[in-house]
Amino acid sequence: MTRPITFAIPKGRILDEALPLLARAGIEPEAEFHRKESRALRFATNVDGLSIIRVRAFDVATFVAHGAAQIGIVGSDVIAEFGYSELYAPVDLQIGHCRLSIAEPVDAPPEDPGVASHVRVATKYPHLTRAHYEAQGIQAECVKLNGAMELAPSLGLSRRIVDLVSSGATLRANGLVETATIMDISARLIVNRAAMKMRAAELVPMVERFRAAVEASHAA
Fold this sequence. Notes:
D-Maltodextrin-Binding Protein, domain 2; five-stranded mixed sheet; six-stranded mixed sheet; 11 strands; 2 domains; alpha/beta
């Protein structure tokens, strides 16, 4: 018996924007998926042999890269942070737009030029943060946080943070200001490379339906 296809979808900011694209691609999760009080993580769909798992954004890439899921949706920030060679990202879904930025307190005093070769940064993107600063000849000491990044400067954990920014309202509410953008981000359809070869008859048409769904949403 052929193993079912598992589609990994992120919780959080991308999910609401992804659902209309799923529908345009002909995929509808079961009713349980839409119940806010549901604690289930795996759901059937209207497509035979296709189930959806709903996990943290960073975990989508891990599930797909290791073949536990064959296809998924995740932000380009996650793809760049992990750099999994096992992932193929054939479609920019043109949703989940935001940016990965550096921010610090609005009233931060000018920095001593003598310490400019070393910075301390709170972030959940240590790879991208270090790479950004290394390109400027600066060593970045990254303090790994998974949330509440905006508290780090006020509590003395770090002068700077690197985090996702959309409107910038959360930064402003916490007395922070963007000082640089590391990368612009959008959500991508990702596929496990091995699965794409071994199960091309199932996955290639699915990829093409998403490509067509993106084109249709922009033509509307």
